[in-house]
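Repro case for the chain-ordering regression, as requested:
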Amino acid sequence: MNRFIRSVGVLIVAIGLAGGLPLAAQDHGDHLDASSEHTAVQGSEESHEHEGHEHEGHEHEEFVAGTFIIHHIADAHDIHLFGDVHIPLPVILFLEGHGLQLFMSSAFDGHGHGDKHLSREGIEYTLHAEDGVLEDGRSVVSGQITASEAGAAIGLYDLSITKSVFGMLVILALMVWMFLGIAGSYRKNPGKAPKGIANAMEPLIMFIRDEIAKPSIGDKADRFMPFLLTVFFFIFFCNLLGLVPFLGAFNITGTIGVTVVLATLVFLLTNLNGNKHYWGHIFWPPGVPLPVKIILVPIEVFGILMKPAVLMIRLTANISAGHIIILAFTSLIFIFGDGGQAVGAGSGMGIFSTAFMIFMYFLELLVAFLQAFVFTLLAAIYFGDATHDPAHH
Amino acid sequence: MGALLTPALGTVIWASIAFLVVLFVLKRFAWGPILAALDEREQSIAGALNEADKVRKEMAELAASNENELKEARAERDRMMREAREMADSLIAEAKNKAREAADKEVASAKDAIAIERKAAVAELKAEVGNLSLDIAERLLREKLESSDEQKALVNRLIDESPLN
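-- result from build under test --
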């Protein structure tokens, strides 16, 4: 017990000290940012000029917790490890009239938090840092890439391997490697007790089969087991990857582009497997008087779409919320530190924030499992509703 | 903020392709074999448990029947011992009776023999005593009647005593 307390104490001090590193690095980055703004300002002049005025007014940039947090939970075109260290990722753009363009995200000029630019083969690319509206009336979101040639905007489709896509591919590759290995170990030792990683995963597989699929779906559970298992482990592992500190703060299951795919698959699997009974309940609810039917049927029809949408929103919001809380407590350190002016206050807050963040990390570990479980359970319940056989009433 | 709420086209495409590919790969090469192996193992465990249960029941039955046999054997032994004891007792009693009868017979025949012998002896004794008496009487008479006076006296006395008067 004493050892545990000591190691937690060491951890708190270590993380408190580490909290100072990004602070210093950020200052460094901001100076670079400020200097580079004078040289390479293209495209959205207006916003840059605005920022530039701000920089002139203050000795150091005001720390804005909101942008800091959004920047860290939003998808990005590179993996931001710490300070100014980024792992570049491939940018894949399909430009109208110019075909496929492929380059690394490190090709973009500029550090820090402003818009980034790239001039390549006569085309000007801009990686936007903020949500906003461009001069030509197009609205952009942070992290979006726009392209223009000689001042004329070019339409593009961004198929880049972003941070979330990269993390997702890593997790999926890990899953393939892990579960093919486990399947191999079962083939090698048929009927024997599982060993190693198979032993670790077997309870989860059994849990999904016996506690989620079978009670919710019944005797048709086998048909949905592959999807339920894949989706559970995918969400669970993605959630866990998002909790590893100093590894780019992956927020895969908090990326709406990923969860929308999972929700769409649930939607398709539910409705493609829907039997007569399922559709009957939606379009002609039995045992309900006609006036109530008039109200109920649109609700039920809306529910077809709403149920998977709720799955998507719940997962995205929960995982993002966890990251936001942890980032908010990180932000408190910088707010109290006043950009390096009040190191004492910042350190004091660092210790408090770190203690709370450790608590949050434990909670997030629980949430990582819980959200994977909830998504899988609700998907199984929807499948069960769709395939439920009224003869078994 | 918009980036959080807008699904990016690239992410959606990559996620769809990658997830579906992995789903099918895992379904074909991982989940199928794993779930089959789990089912198989569960069935074999259930089978083994049933088997063990059956064997346990059989063992219990066997033990019960052993117990019964033991009990029967013990009863049999007791019965045999009792019979043997009874037989021995009856044999001893019979032998004793026979011996007693034989002895009685012996004693009776001995008594008979003794009685016969005694009768013979008594008869012999009587004859001897008669002879002896005759002898003595002869000798006495011979000595008394050696003088004629005495012979005359006697004849007189005898005549006197006779009931001829």
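Ordering looks correct now. Chain A has ten helices and eleven strands.
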